[in-house]
C-alpha cells in the first residue's frame, strides 16, 4: 500500500498554549508526513549568537560572499544535526523535493555550494528538526495544539523570522491576536 503525504509541503503553526515551551509560537515547514511519522524544520526562531559563517568555519569552509545569515532552531530532535531548507533550483547528494514548494538537504555539499555562490537561490540553515512517530502528529492534530496552512515559500523566505507565526495565521484569514489559550465546554 502506497503511503500518503498528509501535511508534506504545508506549514504547521503552534497554537497558543500548546503546552510545550519548545513549541511556543513555532512555525514548522513540513518536509515529510506519512504513515511512518513526520519530519519538519522549524523556521520561526533562530539560535542566538550563531551565524552561517561560524557554522562554515566549523567545517573549514571559506564563507566566500555568502551572507552571515542566522541559523534557525530547526527543532528539539538531534539539535547538532544541520539541515538546509531551500528553493528547488538546486539539488545535491541527498536533496529531497518537498511537494514542489521547497527542498531539504542535510549534507555538507549544500553548504559548500552556498559558500561558493553556486547553491540554491533561496535558503535557510537550521540545526535540529521536529519529528513525530507513527501517527503521533495525526493524533496531535485532533487536539488543540497545531494549525496547518498551505506551504507558502514566501512565509519562509520573504518574511522576517519574528513575523512568520503571525503571517501564517494571517494567510489563513485569522487574526492571531484573537486566538485563545483554552477551549470552552458545552
From TrEMBL:
Can you name a GO cellular component term? cytosol
The record's section on InterPro entries has: AlgH-like
A Pfam match is: DUF179
What PANTHER family does the database record attribute to this sequence? UNCHARACTERIZED PROTEIN YQGE, UPF0301 PROTEIN YQGE
Q: What family does the database annotate?
A: Belongs to the UPF0301 (AlgH) family.
- Its recorded name reads UPF0301 protein M9978_02030
Task: Please tell me the species this chain comes from.
Answer: Sphingomonas tagetis
Amino acid at each position: 500500500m502506497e503511503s500518503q503525504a498528509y501535511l508534506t509541503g504545508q506549514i504547521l503553526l503552534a497554537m497558543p498554549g500548546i503546552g510545550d515551551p519548545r513549541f511556543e509560537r513555532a512555525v514548522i515547514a513540513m518536509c515529510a508526513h506519512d504513515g511512518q511519522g513526520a519530519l519538519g524544520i522549524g523556521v520561526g526562531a533562530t539560535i542566538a549568537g550563531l551565524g552561517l559563517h561560524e557554522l562554515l568555519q566549523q567545517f573549514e569552509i571559506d564563507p566566500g560572499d555568502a551572507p552571515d545569515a542566522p541559523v534557525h532552531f530547526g527543532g528539539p530532535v538531534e539539535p547538532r544535526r544541520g539541515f538546509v531548507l531551500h528553493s528547488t533550483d538546486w539539488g545535491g547528494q541527498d536533496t529531497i523535493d518537498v511537494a514542489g514548494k521547497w527542498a531539504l538537504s542535510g549534507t555538507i555539499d549544500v553548504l559548500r555550494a552556498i559558500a561558493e555562490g553556486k547553491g540554491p537561490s533561496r535558503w535557510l540553515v537550521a540545526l535540529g528538526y521536529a519529528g513525530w512517530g507513527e501517527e503521533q502528529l495525526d493524533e496531535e492534530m485532533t487536539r488543540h495544539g497545531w494549525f496547518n496552512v498551505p506551504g507558502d515559500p514566501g512565509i519562509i523566505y520573504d518574511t522576517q523570522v519574528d513575523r512568520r507565526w503571525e503571517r501564517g495565521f494571517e494567510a489563513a484569514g485569522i487574526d492571531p491576536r484573537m486566538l485563545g489559550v483554552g477551549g470552552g465546554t458545552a
